[in-house]
């Protein structure tokens, strides 16, 4: 059956809307029950021999002690054990991250084929662990807050020994954009306003925090701070405006 671009966009749009949040990843997390009596475990085979997509938000050998400490801090709050010994979802949720982000977003596989099969998420296309953007994003739905633990690799140098301002802007866009998409569905960055307050040493781990300021119709306003991991040093602050878009907009119909 031949469909017009507009028909295809409507179908995809309906698919996105009816199939839940963008971040229901294609591959289930480790140990997630799939149905009565079945538990699929995502075995940590050394990439690239695994048939599963690589989730870049999981620890790898390049992560330093501070990156690991903060990962464990937030990850331990993704699941809590009640007094009765039951496991329950905690206040935080780790968002998976793939280099074909659209393909592994719910319903995105068709869209990723239509747009460009070779497309890769900019921050996730350098294979060497630790060379560039190492990060993991956690969201707290109740507090409408998002935290990213970011370790900046040697390929991101700008001023000698420090992180390039464009790489910092990239991470701010990625974190606030992910947060906006989590809150509001498909969005595009309309405005980013960034103030650089103190340089980030290359190789260091920093925290990038995004908070919802307000929602007004199609507009999601967020503010963002990049700080040292103990919060004592402010590196960068930013505000962002994201506009909700239809899938048709991405397809240009
Ligand atoms: C399907 C997705 C699944 C994804 C699942 C995986 C997720 C994996 C996470 C990856 C995370 C990476 C996140 C990267 C995100 C980018 O980097 S996006 C790339 C950079 N951004 C762009 O290229 C956007 C380019 N600009 C545009 O396409 C269009 O201008 C926009 C932003 C879509 C807006 O166009 P529009 O929809 O026609 O809206 P328009 O009618 O012009 O304006 C609507 C309202 O917004 C206001 N407005 C528009 N622009 C502005 C502005 N710059 N400043 C202030 N107000 C503005 C207007 O004044 C108007 O206000 P009202 O009059 O309604 O009060």
From TrEMBL:
Q: Which UniProt keywords apply?
A: Apoptosis, Cell membrane, Cell projection, Cytoplasm, Fatty acid metabolism, Hydrolase, Lipid metabolism, Membrane, Mitochondrion, Mitochondrion inner membrane, Transit peptide
Membrane association type:
Peripheral membrane protein
Q: Which Gene3D superfamilies match?
A: Hotdog Thioesterase
Main localisation, per the record? membrane
Recorded GO molecular functions are: hydrolase activity
Q: Name one GO biological process term.
A: apoptotic process
* Catalytic activity, EC: 3.1.2.2
Q: What is this protein called?
A: Acyl-coenzyme A thioesterase THEM4
Q: Taxonomic lineage per UniProt? A: Eukaryota, Metazoa, Chordata, Craniata, Vertebrata
């Amino acid at each position: 059956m031949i469909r017009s671009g507009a028909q295809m966009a409507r179908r995809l749009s309906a698919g996105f809307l009816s199939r839940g949040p963008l971040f229901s990843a294609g591959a289930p997390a480790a140990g997630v029950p799939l149905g009565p009596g079945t538990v699929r475990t995502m075995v940590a085979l050394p990439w690239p021999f695994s048939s599963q997509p690589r989730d870049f938000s999981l620890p790898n050998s390049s992560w330093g002690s501070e990156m690991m400490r903060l990962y464990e801090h937030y990850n331990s709050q993704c699941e809590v054990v009640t007094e009765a010994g039951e496991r329950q979802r905690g206040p935080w949720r780790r968002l998976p991250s793939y280099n074909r982000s659209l393909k592994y977003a719910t319903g995105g596989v068709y869209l990723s084929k239509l747009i460009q099969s070779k497309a890769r998420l900019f921050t996730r296309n350098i294979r060497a662990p630790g060379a560039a953007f190492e990060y993991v994003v956690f969201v707290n739905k109740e507090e409408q807050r998002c935290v990213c633990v970011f370790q900046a690799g040697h390929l991101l140098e700008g001023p000698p020994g420090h992180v390039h301002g464009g790489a910092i802007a990239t991470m701010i866009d990625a974190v606030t954009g992910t947060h906006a998409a989590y809150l509001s569905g498909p969005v595009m960055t309309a405005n980013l306003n960034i103030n650089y307050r103190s340089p980030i040493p290359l190789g260091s781990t920093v925290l990038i925090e995004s908070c919802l300021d307000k929602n007004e119709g199609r507009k999601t306003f967020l503010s963002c701070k990049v700080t040292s991991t103990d919060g004592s040093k402010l590196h960068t602050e930013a505000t962002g405006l994201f506009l909700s878009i239809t899938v048709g907009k991405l397809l240009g119909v």
